[in-house]
Amino acid sequence: MPQLAYVNGRILPHADASLHVEDRGTQFGDAVYEVCAVMNGRILDWQPHLVRLRRNLGELGISLAIADGPLSLQARRLIAANGHSEAIIYMQVSRGTARRDHGFPGATPSNLVMTVRRFDFAQRLRQLDTGITVITQRDNRWGRVDIKTTGLLPNVLAKQAAKDAGAFEAWLVAGDTVREGSSTNAWIVKDGRIITHPTGTAILPGIARDSLITLARAAQLVVDERPFTLAEALSADEAFLTSTTAPILPVVRIDGAPVGNGRTGPVVRRLADLVWAEVARQTGWRA
User: Fold this and answer.
1) Per-domain residue ranges for the chain?
2) d(CA 264, CA 131)
3) pTM, entire model
4) For the chain, how big is the Rg over CA atoms in Å?
5) What are the tens digits of pLDDT across the range 78-106?
6) Which of 7, 175, 192, 257 has the greatest CB tally within 10 Å of its CB?
7) Residue 1: which pLDDT band, with cuts at 50, 70 and 90?
8) Which residues share a beta bridge with 223?
9) Which residue is catalytic, options 148, 159, 163, 190?
């Protein structure tokens, strides 16, 4: 089937889908976005993604005229039109198209685009056994990374540094504190306690992060939302990361040094069981 995209109310062939050159997302990064997992044709955690999208739009003062109900309908139409039962859907809202000027334009409608592409989530189950590696990079992002904007150049450079090093991800470190990954949330396990950086302006409040905390606490596992240092990460019993496209992956090496025994640990395996059971509950997806 041809790849299709959504642009301001129209579903178009991907090759014909475009915005004006003076879209403020293109010229200023004046835009927010969401990425959602589609499994068994159903969107995982759709409502929390919508809540975060609306919150981020509000933080930037961007108005999106379409209500949640019609937006949900258009997203599902696009997924069905592309014919992928296992995919990711990307949504982006910019402040709109206007003559280039730093100040906000008046009475300019926002631009909404969505794309869908096939994604193999079964690979994440295989990576539960092998684990993944991360490197560390200095966190040089702006001070409001809790807002999911398209201004991602520091994240892009950190991800490329990881790729060049043969690693899966780069963990961003401020001073001696590990904050999060370039596109993931970061976690460690010590003496059975699950530790991750608290929400605030220094990290993105990940949807997968919030879901895992809820699942872990419901299973009587202890979760500490507190900053942790790189030294703590290197001496942890286990480590892992979470994101929409990587619901949970064990980190077995950090900057080349093994975490724990260098293999997937029991706490991560227990959490993975909880995460993938929740995926199955919401979507019916099973590998």
Assistant:
1) 4-119, 124-283
2) 6
3) 0.96
4) 19
5) 999 999 999 999 999 999 999 999 999 98
6) 7
7) low
8) 194
9) 148
Query: CATH number of the domain at 4-119, please?
Result: 3.30.470.10
Locate 147 and state its tokens: 């807002």
- Give me the architecture of the 124-283 domain, per CATH: Alpha-Beta Barrel (3.20)
136-191 residue pLDDT tens: 999 999 999 999 999 999 999 999 999 999 999 999 999 999 999 999 999 999 99
Longest dimension (CA), the chain: 58
pLDDT tens for 202-230 read: 999 999 999 999 999 999 999 999 999 99
In the structure encoding, which two tokens stand for residue 213, read together? 């905390």
Active site residue 148: yes
Q: Which two tokens stand for residue 196?
A: 């991750």
